[in-house]
Design brief:
single chain, about 70 residues
Length: about 70
């Protein structure tokens, strides 16, 4: 970034140049935001797993009782 490239002006041929400040962006992260998101995802997946287990248990129970 500190390397200055000498460029000549197409109109006058001069090489004097000045650095023009450019806007920049930065990212602000809330502490523990990643951990909170990970906990939300884990809770969601656990609820899906628990629901699937309950549905499987109900299915197996019905299949077992249909035969009788």
């Amino acid at each position: 970034m500190k390397e200055v490239i000498q460029v000549s002006c197409p109109r006058c041929g001069g090489t004097h140049s000045e650095r023009v400040p450019q806007p920049f962006a930065f990212r602000v992260e809330i502490p523990d935001a990643g951990q909170r998101r990970a906990k939300e995802i884990a809770a969601y997946l656990n609820s899906k797993r628990d629901k699937a287990r309950a549905e499987a248990a109900e299915y197996n129970y019905r299949k077992a009782n249909e035969k009788k």
